[in-house]
TrEMBL record:
Superkingdom in the source lineage: Bacteria
CDD domains (alphabetical): LuxR_C_like, REC_NarL-like
SMART domains: HTH_LUXR (SM00421), REC (SM00448)
One BP annotation, GO: regulation of DNA-templated transcription
Nucleotide-binding keyword on record: no
Molecular function in Gene Ontology: DNA binding
Record PTM 4-aspartylphosphate, positions in chain: D75
Coiled coil ranges: none
Keywords, sorted A to Z: DNA-binding, Phosphoprotein
Record protein name field: Two component transcriptional regulator, LuxR family
Organism the protein comes from: Paracoccus seriniphilus
Length: 235
């Protein structure tokens, strides 16, 4: 039986504090899997309120007009957002909600990135029913949940000093764009916010990733989160 991980139990964010799990929102675009997960949560997990939606846009609309759920089950492959971008947007909308990633993507780097960006746990889609129950139980105790056999590395990919030095090479405009990316904004939204073209935003993002020595927007956000990034934005 898969056991919940106790790794990282100290200094947990509000989203990882002990809680009663009575309401769940599933963000998943595959109807059959969504229906199966709903049945597991209601009948086996005893969850009284299970809502479902199939896009990040619809998820954010639900969160804006209805009480936040205790746990959000989030797929990383959705029609309107890269999963990590979706995770960032949901974290911004409901910082206290526990977000459990349920995905067919389960490489160590993907799991590590999701947890570093504030996920409360990670469950591969192919997992057995008991694993979902164990994950919910761990979240209820305020503990992170990781797949069996996965161990979060103790040492970060880059030191605080290295991250500061790299972030210090960004121009004020690039720093602002990275801050907006960290808020979960897409290129079109950033272009509107900064009053520049979307192609200019894309060019800035390319330079930002090159300066930070990363390969994706998500890695750039992690680099920004490793330091007090808000202070850099005002320089």
């Amino acid at each position: 039986m898969t056991q919940p991980s106790n790794h990282g139990k100290q200094d947990l964010p509000m989203s990882a504090l002990p809680r009663r799990v009575e309401s769940v929102l599933i963000v998943e675009d595959h109807p059959l899997f969504c229906d199966a997960l709903t049945i597991i949560l209601q009948i086996v997990g005893g969850i009284s309120s299970v809502r479902t939606t199939d896009t990040i846009e619809n998820c954010l609309a639900i969160l804006a007009r209805e009480p936040a759920p205790d746990v959000i089950f989030l797929d990383l492959s959705l029609p309107d957002a890269d999963g990590m971008d979706g995770l960032m947007q949901i974290r911004k909308a409901v910082p206290t909600a526990a977000i459990l990633i349920v995905s067919s993507l389960h490489s160590p780097s993907t799991i590590q990135t999701a947890m570093a960006m504030g996920a409360a746990g990670y469950v591969p889609k192919h997992s057995k029913r008991q694993v979902f129950q164990d994950a919910l139980a761990a979240i209820a105790r305020g503990e992170p949940y990781l797949p069996e056999g996965f161990v979060m590395p103790d040492n970060p990919a880059q030191t605080h000093a290295q991250a500061c030095n790299k972030l210090g090479t960004l121009t004020p405009q690039q720093t602002r764009i990275l801050a907006l990316i960290s808020e979960g904004m897409m290129n079109k939204q950033i272009a509107h916010e900064c009053q520049i073209t979307e192609s200019t935003v894309k060019a800035h993002v390319t330079v930002i990733m090159r300066k930070l020595g990363v390969q994706s927007r998500t890695q750039a956000v992690l680099a920004a989160q490793s330091v007090r990034f808000d202070n850099l934005e005002t320089r």
